[in-house]
Amino acid sequence: MRIRDNGYDYYEERPRWGQRLGRFLALIGVVFAVVAAVVVVQRLSDDTLALIIGLLLAGVPLLAIIGLLIFVLARRGQRQSPPQQMTIPPIIMQIPQQPSQPALPNYGLPWEGTMQRTGGRQWEVIGEE
Fold it and tell me: Residue 12 belongs to what domain range?
């Protein structure tokens, strides 16, 4: 095919045989799909056809929103810089010193000293004779 552009002649490359065959098969496939869809739709009842149309009308916007969300998240992931290494700040812990003298009398728990001073407790069981 000869094309004239700005006064200069040049020849456009013809598509290869495989490309032409692929386009032809794609065209045949589209025609087959359209004819099959028309035949199937003619055999469906009105209620079934209304259901399919309703699902398509609800599903197409949903797919568009999901596609847009994936596109935005993919672009956000491309813009982010590589993560920087985090440095852990040093943690300084001070251990409290033990007191040299006990804070409680008798060097123990409060009830231990009371039992030693009183000589123990007396228990009286009620109901047993």
Answer: 1-43
Tell me: do 18 and 3 sit in the same domain: yes
Overall pTM > 0.85: no
Same domain flag for 3 and 36: yes
One-character DSSP codes across 42-93:
HHS-HHHHHHHHHHHHHHHHHHHHHHHHHHHHHHHHHHSPPPPPPPPPP---
pLDDT in tens, 3-57: 555 655 555 677 788 888 999 999 999 999 999 999 988 998 989 989 989 998 9
**Is residue 120 situated within a structural domain?**
no
